[in-house]
Amino acid sequence: MRNETLLDRAFSNFKAAEANWKLIGEDDFFINLSGYLLEQSLELFIKHHLEINGVKYPHTHDLPTLVNLLNSADDLLGEKLQLFAGTITTWESKTRYIKNYFLEKRNVEKGFELIKPLFQNRLDDMSVF
User: How far apart are CA 102 and CA 93, in angstroms?
Assistant: First the structure.
């Protein structure tokens, strides 16, 4: 059995977000769930890169805080994703705790657009089978 990494968990959360996104026609809940899973995937992706570079990170879900700890955030995430990180951060708590709160579909679509390239190599490898 291989050792699981935070990157593995990040990718699994991304794939789960995609699977839930396909169900949004059934219930707006799936928009929220997809947004939550996207936030988790980005958070774990960043924490993985901090971990493999020996950077101790705080126990936080605040993406801008984590992004600021990255040495090469521009190269790793790109400017648009860095700027959108503050919005994505709110998806973690608001979708879990605020009743009758729903994310805007277009914002979650933007999240997919910005986060998907982080996992493109793994997605390409999966399409081989």
Answer: 12
Write out pLDDT tens, residues 59-99.
Answer: 999 999 999 999 877 788 888 999 999 999 999 999 988 99
Task: Decide: 21 and 15 in contact? Cβ < 8 Å.
Answer: no
- Please name the amino acid found at residue 74: D
Return d(Cα 112, Cα 42) in angstroms, integer.
Answer: 10
- What is the C-alpha radius of gyration for the chain, rounded to an integer number of angstroms? 15
Interval 28-40: pLDDT, tens: 899 999 999 999 9
**Among residues 5, 6, 33, 4, which one has the least CA distance to residue 20?**
33
Alpha-carbon span 8 to 45, nearest angstrom: 9
CA angle 8, 70, 12 (to 5 degrees): 15
